[in-house]
Amino acid sequence: MASETKENWWIWKVFWILLFITAFEVALGIIKPSFLVDTIFLGTKLLNHVFIILTIIKAAYIILQFMHLGHEKQTLKWTILLPAMVLVPYLLFIILSEGAYAYLMI
Questions:
Q1: How many Cα atoms are found within 13 Å in the side-chain-facing hemisphere of 69?
Q2: Which residues of 52-89 are buried (b: 16+ CB within 10 A; e: fewer)?
Q3: Which of 2, 17, 25, 88 has the fewest CB atoms within 10 Å of its CB?
């Protein structure tokens, strides 16, 4: 039993990190600070950008931990994470900017 606990300590570390980030997101969603809600950047509220960035961070951490990439060579980590970290924000930029343009043209 003791050796099983020592082997599974990492799952609790992952749990607490993801819980903290999620709780922070929920707190931001409940509080909705005025400087994040009133500021518009790329056609949407700054609060949305904060949520997108935190979600990308959580996704990268989940990929590193549960796909067991955390213990691989640095080049393999970047080969998996870099396309996602570049393409997801780029696609979100396209969606947000086109959505803002379509909203302004109506």
A1: 15
A2: eeeebeeebeebbbeeebeeeeeeebeebbeeeeeeee
A3: 2
